[in-house]
Amino acid sequence: MFRPISTLPLPASAQLLLRESGFLFCEDVISHRGVAPEARSILQRWNLHSGECWNTLTSPPQTLNSLDLWQEECTSRSIVTWSKDVDSILDGGIPFQVITELCGAPGSGKTQMSLQLCVDVQIPESLGGAEGQAVFIDTACNFSSQRIRAIADACCKHCHLLSRKNQIRDFVNFNADSILNNIHLISIHGIVQLLAAVKVLPQLIEQHPQIKLVVIDSLAFPFTCGETCNTLDRTSYIYRILSDLQKLAVHNRLAIVITNQLTTRIIKSTPNMSELSPALGESLGHRVTQRLLLGRIAGNLKAAIVLKGNNQCMSSAKFQITEAGIRDL
């Protein structure tokens, strides 16, 4: 039985060119002699002209055992936020291989939490950390080297105390300078630069395999305060960005964190009523794996509420932002 070209995970433009050239089935493209010369010339632009690529495309998808996945999740490490209460509602911290959204009003702690995570991802494995590096994509000029230096100093001081207490001696190269050196900053301005920055992330990770965290602060800023685009284009851009980030997270076992603003949404069913909701539309909420709402409460404190999560129920926690970073009350 012949398999149609349309059943393969090929770009639409590639399928169109193949059909126009008379290649309707997989067997028309490849045989015991390999890929047909006419098809090879068409597929070269997508790097799909080798027989090995076609064997991969036509083979059944790989299946995973649910028990193995569950055991891997139980043993995998998360990135701590340095607040036990927040880590508790997140089932241990920010997980790898998923996209986490931090949304909230200005001053709710989104950037502070992002900077804290860029430091915490570098905690040595001997103390339960990931011992990785971070990429910080800054779209709104929120990155502060002075602030992250203070967070790094506090983290190093605490980790060195733990190392002496537990008699761990491999902390020679763990200091504030090394932490700052392992945070790769990408400053972008506008939607086009944001799309380009996401596209070059695989090359950057290939150069620095220790990268375990990618932060975009903020995803909404280029769309709401920069270039203007219609709703259809905006949705297409956002889905393209999140799709690339999700593939990157799964393939390289990264943690992806994006920050988002709040906007006013009109309630159509109730006249003259509105509510605050995350920006960029409801479609963004369907694409992220978990969503954490940050806000300010009385006493100059902060609150975190889990709005969406595969492993969490809707719960909340309080924390504060000190000179040393994110801390419990």
Automatic annotation (TrEMBL):
Annotated ranges, domain RecA family profile: 75-262
Protein name: DNA repair protein RAD51 homolog 3
One cellular component (GO) term of this entry: Rad51C-XRCC3 complex
Gene label: LOC113213342
Any one GO molecular-function label of the UniProt entry: four-way junction DNA binding
Taxonomic placement: Eukaryota, Metazoa, Ecdysozoa, Arthropoda, Hexapoda
Pfam families: Rad51
SUPFAM superfamilies: P-loop containing nucleoside triphosphate hydrolases (SSF52540)
Keyword Nucleus attributed: yes
A GO BP annotation: meiotic DNA recombinase assembly
Keyword Nucleotide-binding found: yes
Key words, A-Z: ATP-binding, DNA damage, DNA repair, Nucleotide-binding, Nucleus
Domain of life: Eukaryota
Localization, UniProt: Nucleus
